[in-house]
């Protein structure tokens, strides 16, 4: 790595004076990339080094939406972290675009959903992040939130126009993902939001028939019945 990159990613916080000294000696360091096409900004963001990001943001030529070799931005990296609320706030305040995409088509909202970062998801939505963007696998942030069973994020995405019945490249809906991972409460939220129970994935499976065990299946069917929702089924597997 180049001189500034180790400072940006060091686990031991470096004094601002160290970063200032390096940049004063050679301001071009802020905009040099390593072998993975990452800037010091990317290393600092991925390690939640907000003080360094603040210094880098003051440098000539700073681009808050700069992408690395895989298309990741600093905001995407921050959105993947559990304790980076302040960094997310800073990047958004600097004008970070929440709808930038990686080379695989994912946005910051996909990562916030995958990592169950509810506060970050709310911040992104508040800055007009779209809940309707599919990645190259055809997955919405909703698919990811359903797969990890995060009910609050699922509700947030549904409240902001995420299609409940959209399918990914495997023909799976969010309901397929939720049930396959055993998240009964998430499945019920999706069902109440209008998830279609007769949709089959690419292998021909209905969502309910992907339940990992009889207990999960029974819970979902019982809860759906109590809500007056009829579930399509090809028959119990247990």
Task: Tell me about this structure.
The chain is built from 13 helices and no strands. The chain is an all-alpha fold and 238 residues long. It has two domains: 1-104, Serine Threonine Protein Phosphatase 5, Tetratricopeptide repeat, CATH 1.25.40.20; 131-238, Ankyrin repeat-containing domain (Serine Threonine Protein Phosphatase 5, Tetratricopeptide repeat), CATH 1.25.40. Helix 7 packs antiparallel against helix 8, helix 7 (108-114) runs parallel beside helix 9 and helix 9 (141-148) runs antiparallel to helix 10 (151-159). The radius of gyration is 21 Å and the shape is elongated. The model has no long low-confidence stretch (mean pLDDT 93).
TL;DR of this structure?
By secondary structure, the chain is mostly helical. It has helices at 4-9, 16-25, 40-46, 50-57, 74-79, 85-93, 108-114, 118-126, 141-148, 151-159, 174-180, 184-192, 214-226. The mean pLDDT is 93.
Identify the CATH homologous superfamily of the largest domain.
Answer: Ankyrin repeat-containing domain
Tally of individual domains: 2
**Second rung of CATH, namely the architecture of the largest domain:** Alpha Horseshoe
Class based on secondary structure composition and strand pairing: mainly alpha
Based on DSSP secondary structure assignment, what is the total number of beta strands?
0
> What is the CATH first-level class name of the largest domain?
Mainly Alpha
Give average pLDDT, whole number.
93
H/E series, N to C?
HHHHHHHHHHHHH
Radius of gyration: 21 Å
- CATH fold assignment of the largest domain: Serine Threonine Protein Phosphatase 5, Tetratricopeptide repeat
């Amino acid at each position: 790595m180049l001189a500034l990159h180790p400072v940006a990613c060091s686990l031991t916080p470096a004094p601002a004076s160290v970063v200032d000294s390096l940049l004063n000696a050679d301001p071009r360091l802020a905009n040099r990339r390593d072998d993975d096409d990452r800037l010091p900004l990317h290393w600092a963001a991925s390690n939640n080094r907000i003080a360094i990001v603040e210094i880098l943001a003051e440098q000539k030529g700073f681009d808050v939406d700069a992408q690395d070799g895989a298309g990741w931005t600093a905001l995407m990296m921050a959105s993947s972290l559990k304790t980076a609320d302040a960094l997310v706030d800073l990047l958004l305040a600097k004008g970070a675009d929440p709808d930038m995409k990686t080379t695989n088509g994912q946005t910051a909202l996909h990562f916030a959903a995958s990592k169950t970062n509810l506060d970050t998801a709310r911040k992104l939505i508040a800055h007009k992040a779209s809940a309707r963007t599919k990645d190259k696998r055809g997955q919405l942030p909703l698919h990811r939130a359903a797969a990890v069973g995060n009910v609050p994020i699922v509700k947030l995405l549904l409240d902001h126009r995420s299609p409940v019945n959209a399918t990914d490249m495997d023909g799976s809906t969010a309901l397929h993902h939720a049930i396959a991972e055993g998240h009964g409460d998430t499945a019920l939220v999706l069902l109440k939001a209008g998830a279609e129970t007769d949709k089959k994935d690419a292998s021909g499976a209905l969502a309910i028939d992907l339940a990992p065990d009889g207990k999960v299946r029974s819970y979902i069917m019982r809860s759906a019945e109590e809500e007056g929702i009829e579930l399509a089924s090809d028959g119990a597997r247990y």
